[in-house]
Design a protein that fits this description.
- The protein is of the alpha/beta class.
- The strands form 2 sheets. Strands 2-1-3-4-12-11-10-7-8 form a 9-stranded mixed beta sheet.
- The chain is globular.
- Bound molecules: glutamine (GLN).
- Glutamine binds next to helix 4.
């Protein structure tokens, strides 16, 4: 599969490495026209406000809302896929029925590592100024990852979002595999 990585801002190269690691072909997506070359898209971690503004400017918001490309959102990507960010207005794709809380772990725990459950399996979760899912707005959303009681991974049809950084951990490739095998093969 040709898996696009949105190349606007954030940890783009790490995503491309993971795509290679699971045996697929990464494609850097910089312009809306690049969307025609890909079978799925990863929105990397970074700064969701910056990425969102540029996505709007380059026409990605409209293009992705009108396309059926499966999307995996990581950290800032989760924020961008959400319908609403608590207490804040910023450009969002709004493709998933979730409300998120940005920087949910606050300043004391800006970044940390912890075992989490992903589809019932224990994996390592690396959190960097991570959001959490505060509220789920429809039955179409499946919780796929939890850190304690916090919802840190969700799936809704062809969309999937995780609050942690699977590109940074040993066993994080499982998250990408799940995306390609389960979410993209609808
Ligand atoms: N706190 C960032 C945001 O809300 C996300 C951080 C990240 O992607 N590592 O945009």
């Amino acid at each position: 599969m040709n898996i696009g990585v949105l190349g606007i801002q954030g940890d783009i190269e790490e995503q491309e490495e993971m795509v290679r690691k699971i045996g697929h072909n990464p494609v850097r997506v910089r312009r809306v026209e690049d969307l025609s070359k890909i079978d799925a898209l990863i929105i990397p971690g970074g700064e969701s406000t910056t990425i969102g503004k540029l996505m709007e400017k380059y026409g990605f918001m409209e293009a992705l809302r009108n396309s059926d490309i499966p999307i995996l959102g990581i950290c800032a990507g989760m924020v961008l896929l959400s319908k609403e960010v608590l207490g804040r207005k910023q450009p969002l794709l709004g493709l998933m029925d979730i409300v998120v809380r940005r920087n949910a772990y606050g300043s004391q725990r800006e970044s940390f590592e912890e075992d989490i459950y992903f589809k019932g399996e224990k994996i390592r979760g690396i959190f960097i100024r991570a959001p959490v899912v505060d509220r789920i707005l429809s039955d179409n959303v499946e919780v796929i990852a939890k850190e304690g009681d916090n919802i840190v991974g969700v799936r809704e049809g062809r969309y999937m979002a995780v609050a942690f950084h699977p590109e940074l951990s040993e066993d994080g490739y499982k998250v990408y595999q799940y995306f390609v095998e389960e979410v993209c093969n609808l």
